[in-house]
Known about the structure:
Layout: H1 5-15, E1 27-31, E2 34-37, E3 42-45, H2 48-51, H3 60-72, H4 83-94, E4 100-104, H5 107-122, E5 133-137, H6 146-149, H7 155-158, E6 168-171, H8 176-182, E7 187-192, H9 206-218, E8 222-226, E9 250-253, E10 264-268, H10 271-274, H11 289-304, H12 307-328, E11 332-338, E12 341-346, H13 351-359, E13 362-363, E14 365-367, E15 371-374, H14 382-397
Parallel strand pairs: 3-13, 5-6, 5-7, 7-8, 8-9
Antiparallel strand pairs: 1-2, 2-3, 4-10, 9-10, 11-12, 12-15, 14-15
Helix pairs in contact: 3-11, 4-11, 12-14
Amino acid sequence: MKIDEKEIIRLANDTLIQNFLRYDIVMESAYDSVIVDTNGKEYIDFLSGIGVVSLGYSNEKFKAALKDQVDKLIHTSNYFYTKPQMTAANLLVKHSFADRVFFANSGAEANEGALKIARKCSHLNEKDLDKYEVVAMKNSFHGRTSMTLNVTDKPEFKSGKGTKARGFVFVEFNNLEELKAAVNENTYAIIMEPLQGEGGLHLATREFVQLARDLADEFHAALIFDEIQCGMGRTGKLFTYEHYGIEPDILTLAKALGNGVPIGAILASGDFANVLEEGDHGTTFGGNPLSTRAATVVLEEMVENNLPGLAADTGEYFKNELEKLKLEYNFIKDIRGKGLMLGIEVDFKCADIVRELHKRGFITNCTREFIIRFLPPLIITRDEIDKLILALKDVFNNI
């Protein structure tokens, strides 16, 4: 029976809280890197659910594992052990800097927990009991919960949510002098995205990351890397910090970790991995068997099939093609990003470009109003990239 698209849209507008500006498209199914609407129109998905579906929509191992887990056990409390949770945690520890893992339900929750760990760890030393400041980056995005909004530099996300909280200092991304001036004996955490997503696809320099590491060590603060969007293979390494050869104390993940099944994770080392005691923190759904089975398969597929390496190769091809566009169209100001996390900065608001690409069968989005962002599945093909480039040319020629 054909789904009534207009009725679905009407019901959504009548019953859902209207905090999303949705396009008049109802999605129904998907395969490979393609998502299909209720009219049968196909879209090559260069957004992957905002950096989530990195394995694509047809990974048979992933689908079989979820079906198997649904038949076995979907949920039990964290008062008990489960094999999926232990397996996923072991894989994350094995392939990262971390000593321990805490599973949450989302990226925002992971960042909340990371900041809580940092704050408690800063109080292990009596002389640090008065630490109260977090240093965050301008153009950052770390979530929409009360605490993570305080380290997110996007005023429109904070509208109507009370007065500005104290104890949060913002510095210009990659500005060594501002960072050095901001971190002091009051700082208990430095938090950053090594590659900013919502902030416009800005990549941290090695010098900036090294300074953050040195300052965190000097002032006994936690260095927190938010890799919720840039982690899990997207930039050409399993974790973006690996490009620098510099390890954080705490790292947060979500999005691609579950390939569409909601999950977040906090990875921590040293004292930061051991500071929480019974009752300090908790979650009802975090680390449930279904989500951690999903994460297990994602990690196995990433490692066994070298999907980060594929993202590096395909991303280099994609970026080169975008650079060619920059030479052709003078309104393109910059091409930014790494691996398969790329963006085109134009000198006008790009929302209409996104809509025109929809008409031509491509999903992407616009961030910071002037940047067309691309976060395709890591299995995206060069042929699909070529089709997008032709579509972009068609749109640009008709501006």
